[in-house]
Amino acid sequence: MPFDYAPAPESRSIVDIESNYGLFIGGSFSEPTSGEFFKTINPATEEVLSEVAEAGQADVDAAVAAARRAYDKTWSKMSGKDRAKYIFRIARLIQERSRELAVLETLDNGKPIRESRDVDLPLVAAHFFYHAGWADKLEFAGYGPDPKSLGVAAQVIPWNFPLLMLAWKVAPALACGNTVVLKPAETTPLTALAFADICKQAGLPPGVVNIITGAGETGRMLVEHPDVDKVAFTGSTEVGKAIQRAVAGTKKKLTLELGGKAANIVFDDAPIDQAIEGIVNGIYFNQGHVCCAGSRLLLQESVADEALASLKRRLTTLRLGDPLDKNTDIGAINSSMQLSKIEELTASGEAEGAERWSPTCPIPDKGFWFPPTVFTNVTQAHRIAREEIFGPVLSVLTFRTPEEAVAKANNTPFGLSAGIWTEKGSRILWMANQMRAGIVWANTFNRFDPTSPFGGFKESGFGREGGVQGLGAYLNVEDPS
Ligand code: NDP
């Protein structure tokens, strides 16, 4: 009998959450003109963590005006070398405060501390370090001898990687000389507000970064604001389309990082144990709240039974529960709304004839939870094979030939990522060329690095974030991607 784990909870005493937060505009926190606040809760316990300001039109106007002033008077006039010093300082402060930020992220989002501590926070710091390095070298980035910034960037981010998505947006914007108004997701505003404090600590000139909290309506007002030069959005395809319509016909430059339905393709010559770890990491990492999650597993028929048996065995060892426990693999679902969406889609899977399986795993009484789930007997017509579930749910299909794998993998309106598992290098290269996906991983999955561009095709959006390609989205040049 295997030994059980003793609880190893991370202490939450390192974070100091205020009972309410205002809006971070022009370098300081202020009350919203509406006087309205909304609650943000811990999805693992449903405990109210804090009350956060709801920005209305007057607040959005004030934030954009502050960003414009900072752009005209300070940031656009500053040398790249001086901008870099601020961004390096922010990166170092993030490292210094990483334990606090990881605990705060886990409390507000529900993701396991193991992930916020070992994946999110190191990547957040890496994004600021990487882009700080670019700030004084933009003339060598391939965008001409003297590439210019755009102006004020309106940035709207989702709840699945709150601080990491902030870093993906804010770091390149600042490095390229733009100022920022950012709206975090309604359910996960706390690390963005902690980041506002880091901007103050770093002595960043007032107005260069503004953080306004609120719901979807605040996001809409921000992206539709006439004095915004650039819109960057990560979130659902539906809202992305609405933003594209709103921005059409304006001078605003737009990048959209939207949903996905990635195929993770396992050939019969793949190292199966390694592939199983990649499949687990591909779909159960961050409770499957990952736009590039490997949510469709394509198994070559000759190894399908063996791989499925191994996968099920591995899933019985995953630990679901307290996200602050360092042993936890599967944390809480971010909100009751997201939980309902996962339940609705998984119910449709059963109704349409797919076979559902989950390991036995106790579910806590309070909070929002969903066990790791595998669907077999899935056809390409099933909703669970076509729609983004954004939860810990894997749909398994099979194939016989590489051509069939390509056809099935590309049979989706999305085009964000794909995974290939095989011993054969030539097959990896051939498959990668056939995939209509912005990112293709080979013999690994869900690997991120600030030097590597990330972005999609088709309904997964357009534009790239990260790498030298990502800089083009924040410069007054044609985007090469
Ligand atoms: P949304 O696209 O609604 O949210 C993303 C961000 O956009 C949030 O900050 C949201 O604010 C804001 N927003 C909402 N409506 C508007 C608008 N009209 N104009 C501007 N900004 C707006 O995603 P949801 O949180 O509703 O999630 C729904 C589904 O989207 C998920 O189930 C998942 O399938 C998918 N999703 C995909 C993501 C990805 O990375 N690809 C990320 C998140 C979700 P607020 O949070 O206050 O509503």
The strand order across the widest sheet is 13-14-15-12-11-16-17
Shape: globular
Put simply, the count of helices is: 15
- What portion of the residues fall into strands of 2 or more residues? 15-25%
First-residue to last-residue Cα separation: 53 Å
Oligomer: single chain
Number of strands: 18
Q: How helix-rich are the residues, as a percent range?
A: 25-40%
Structural class by helix and strand composition: alpha/beta
What is the averaged pLDDT score? 97
Q: In terms of per-residue confidence, which ranges show pLDDT below 50 for 5 or more consecutive residues? A: none
Report the major sheet.
7 strands, mixed
Alpha-carbon Rg, integer? 22 Å
Bound molecules: NADPH dihydro-nicotinamide-adenine-dinucleotide phosphate
Describe the 3D structure.
With 481 residues, the protein is of the alpha/beta class. 38% of the residues lie in helices and 16% in strands. The protein has 15 helices and 18 strands. It has helices at 57-73, 80-96, 98-109, 113-134, 162-175, 190-201, 216-223, 237-247, 272-284, 301-315, 336-351, 383-386, 402-410, 425-434, 467-471, and strands at 20-21, 23-25, 28-30, 37-41, 48-53, 152-156, 179-183, 209-211, 230-234, 253-257, 263-266, 296-300, 355-357, 373-376, 393-399, 417-421, 439-442, 461-462. The strands form four sheets. The chain has a seven-stranded mixed beta sheet, sandwiched between helices. It has a six-stranded mixed beta sheet with strand order 8-7-6-9-10-18, sandwiched between helices. Helix 2 packs antiparallel against helix 4 (113-134). It is globular, with a radius of gyration of 22 Å. The mean pLDDT is 97. The structure holds NADPH dihydro-nicotinamide-adenine-dinucleotide phosphate. NADPH dihydro-nicotinamide-adenine-dinucleotide phosphate binds next to helix 7, helix 8 and helix 11.
